[in-house]
Every structure is written in C-alpha cells, then in structure tokens.
Design a protein that fits this description.
By secondary structure, the chain is α+β, with helices and mostly antiparallel strands. It contains 13 helices and seven strands. The strands form two sheets. The chain has a four-stranded antiparallel beta sheet. The chain has a three-stranded antiparallel beta sheet with strand order 5-6-7, covered by helices on one side. The longest helix has 30 residues. The protein is flat and about 90 Å long. 31% of the residues are buried.
C-alpha cells in the first residue's frame, strides 16, 4: 500500500497549529489544543454535509419509514428528498443532489444544537488566562484557516477518488468523531478543570512540563492515526470497487440496520417522468407569497404543509415553546422582568430561525416549479434543475378537488391547491419515495385549473 499524501498534508494543517500552541501556551497547552480540535470538528460536520450532498443515491433508504425507537424520522427539508436532477457548482467538484439535502442539513442542524453546551463551557469554565492570552486570537483565526484548508483538501480527495459514486449519503457517517463532538462539552470541562486544579496544587512551573508532554503526545497520536488512514483507505488497488473497501462494511451495516427499522412491506419505485418535446398549452406557477406563507406555517406546526406529514418530535418542541411562553408570564406578574424577556427572546428567536429555514425549504421545493399542461397530461417541471419532477396523463387522474383552506392556501393569499388521485401507479404508501406528486400547489384561480383537468380527462 502507498501513502496518500493529501490525507497527511491535510492532517498537518491542523497539527502544525497545535504544535505551535503547545509551545506558546505552556501549562494551558491541553486547553488550547482542545479548543483547536473543536474547531476542526466543526469543519468536520460541515464536510459531512457537503459530502452527503455530493453522494450519488445508489442504495436509497426511505427514512420516513424508519422508527428509532417507536418514533418516525422526518428530516429537515423533507420535500427536497423527492427532487430529481443535479446542480453543478464547480467543474472540479461533483454535482450536488438536492434530494440529499435532508440528510445533509441534518448534520448541520444537530451540529449547531450540540455546539451550544460546548460554547457555554468554553465561556464559563475555560480559564480567563487562556482568553486573555495575546496569542488566543491568532489561535482561533489560524485554527479556522487550518481546519478549512484540511476540509478542502479532504473534500477534493473525496471527489477525485470517486467515493461519492459508491457511498450513499446515509453512509457518510464518521460516527466516532461525531460521538466525540456530541460529548465535547464534557471533555472540554474536564480538561479545563483538571488544568486549573493542577495549577492550584502544584503551581504553573510544576504543571507546565506534564501538560505540554500530554499535549505533544495527543498531537503525535493524531498524526499517527492520519498516516494509518492514508494507508488503509487509499491503497494500491485503484479500481473503483477497492478504493473505499474499508468503509463499505460499515456502510452496509448501517443501511441494513435502517432498513430493519422500517416496516416489512414491498415498495415500488416510480419510473422517472418525461415531458413532450412540444410547447405546453398552458403553464402555471406557485405564487411566491403563498410559498413564503407556507414556510412560516410549516415552521409553526412542524410540518403538515404540502405533504400532510407531521414531525412528531418537532411538534413536541413547539408545544414546549408555547408552554415556556405561557410560563414566562408568571415571572412578569411577579415583577421579574429579566427572566420574562430572556425566555421570550429565546423562544421567539428559535421560532424566527425555524421560520427562515422553513421558508428556504419551501422556496427550494416549490419556488422554481412550473406546472405544464399538455394535450394528454400535466407535468411538474423544475426550471432550476431542468428536470421534470412528475408527470401524469389526464385519463389517469380522478377525484379532482380544490383546497382553499389553511394549508391549501396559506394565510388565504388568493391561491389554492388542486389535489387529485392517480390511477397510473401504486398507492402513495407503496412507493419508495412517497412524493407530493398528486397536487398542484398554491396557484391562482385553482377552480379553473381543476376544470381544465376535468375537461381534458373526460370527467
């Protein structure tokens, strides 16, 4: 086996900064490299997100069917899991698959949540001498640049070796480092408190050699691990079936476990849709205001917009937020204004962030969709991706109805949703991708659209 120099160079980017930090910080060296490695883990979560976006979906797992345990998994940006087509962002990188966005955003979402306790520990428990050290701004900036360079090198290597062609998005899961990231607040607290205790008992001069030795040993162990990875993951066998053979068993085990958590039923995958070469007779688009309103409602009720799916855990979070808002009034009535403002600011800030993300979700899912009506059928076409999302002949449509209520027309902005049943394929719950393929959402004059479809279908 040969070494992969890119992997080693990527590791040296961060470890070089860590080595300098050991010399500069002395008795605080362990705390300094712990902060540096947390920055490295932050970029790891971002790299996981990007690699999942690049992964070609070769072995799909319908996570909407998975229960862990007893709870249905409903990922963020759930409507994008049905998107067909790719987006090219650079010639040197693979195309992005929007349908992988739910898995990719999940990494960032959990990473941001888990980062909160770590930041609190770093602010409250890490010694003031560390934050007051003149080298700390250089450590933070240099660590960020080094971690970004490392992630870029590994991302380029991931693309050049073609790993994205064989690893499905669910298999991009460095669980050991993600587990460490989850517990990092505890790790940082222990290191900070042990350093402070050693200094209090033995003094700075007695503590410095031992701490620097431990920090140097950690750096050497990380470098040794990087060299090992460069051996095992990138070997002499350059065939596509051998490049990532060490990651394949773990990917297979993860996929098998997820499928074992899904109900045991036969699923059917739809044939990719197509559209006629001629121009459509008519086109309609979702109204932008209604798409934005749908995003706000989707954030408030934790789903149920467009596809009638409700995220159980997120719904409980909304109920808890409402309870906190009501509970905060007890503080106000007792004259405690500061806790009242803090709780309301926290809850309303969370809802604002969720609303912004949900609006982006709806705009990506529906913002560029165009419903095209032909002689024989109707199709939903995504202009940004340049791909038809679904198509159905008129004579395979029945039970056409117009929804002008809360979710069919969010905030009653003079739009509606045309819903219908399809007879050209299995029922929705028998499909591997239960896509919202039986509605024309948030269009003006939905009654006219419904009548057009009835007349074309002979209903």
């Amino acid at each position: 086996m040969t070494r992969n120099r890119t992997v080693i160079l990527a590791a040296l980017c961060v470890e070089a900064v860590a080595a300098v930090s050991v010399v500069v910080y002395g008795h605080l060296a362990v705390v300094a490299i712990a902060v540096l490695y947390w920055i490295d883990l932050l970029f790891l979560m971002g790299r996981v997100c990007v690699q999942r976006l690049f992964a070609r979906p070769t072995r799909p797992v319908d996570l909407d069917r998975v229960t862990i345990p007893g709870e249905r998994v409903l990922l963020p940006f759930r409507l994008l899991k049905h998107k067909r087509g790719t987006v090219s962002i650079a010639d040197s990188l693979p195309p992005v698959y929007p349908k992988n966005a739910p898995m990719a955003v999940t990494a960032l979402w959990w990473g941001s949540i888990i980062s909160v306790p770590t930041m609190l520990v770093s602010a409250l428990s890490v010694s003031g001498r560390f934050w007051g050290n003149p080298a700390t701004p250089f450590l933070l900036v240099g660590g960020t640049v080094a971690a970004a360079a490392k992630s870029w090198l590994l991302l380029r290597e991931h693309a050049e070796t073609g790993a994205h062609e064989y690893e499905p998005p669910v298999a991009v899961n460095p669980w050991k480092r993600q587990f460490l990231f989850t517990l990092y607040a505890v790790v940082l607290f222990i290191l900070s408190e042990s350093t402070a205790s050693s200094v209090a008992e033995s003094g700075i001069e007695e503590t410095r050699p031992g701490v620097m030795t431990v920090a140097a040993l950690v750096i050497l162990l990380r470098l040794a691990y990087s060299v090992r990875v460069s051996h095992t993951r990138f070997g002499d066998d350059t065939g596509p079936e051998n490049r990532y053979r060490e990651t394949k068993p773990s990917a297979d085990r993860l996929i098998s476990w997820l499928r074992s958590r899904a109900p045991d039923r036969e699923t059917v995958t739809l044939t990719p849709p197509s559209t006629p070469d001629r121009r459509p007779l008519e086109t309609v688009e979702p109204k932008p205001r209604s798409v934005v309103a749908a995003g706000v409602l989707n954030a408030l009720v934790a789903g149920y917009v467009v596809d009638d799916k409700l995220n159980d855990n997120s719904f409980y979070l909304r109920v808890l937020s409402l309870f906190l808002l009501l509970f905060s009034w007890l503080f106000l009535l007792s004259g405690a204004v500061v806790p009242f403002l803090f709780i309301n600011g926290l809850v309303l800030g969370l809802l604002a962030v969720l609303s912004v993300l949900s609006i982006a979700h709806m705009r990506l899912a529906l913002g560029e969709v165009e419903y095209r009506f032909y002689d024989a059928g109707v199709a939903a076409y995504d202009r940004a991706l340049g791909e038809p999302q679904w198509a159905v002949p008129y004579d395979r449509i029945e039970d056409i109805s117009v929804e002008s209520g809360l979710f069919g027309s969010p905030l009653w902005l003079d739009t509606g949703t045309v819903s219908f049943e399809r007879t050209d394929s299995p029922p929705e719950d028998a499909l591997a991708d239960r896509e919202p393929r039986s509605s024309i959402a948030f269009v003006s004059d939905p009654e006219r659209i419904a009548e057009l479809m009835r007349s074309r279908g002979g209903q």
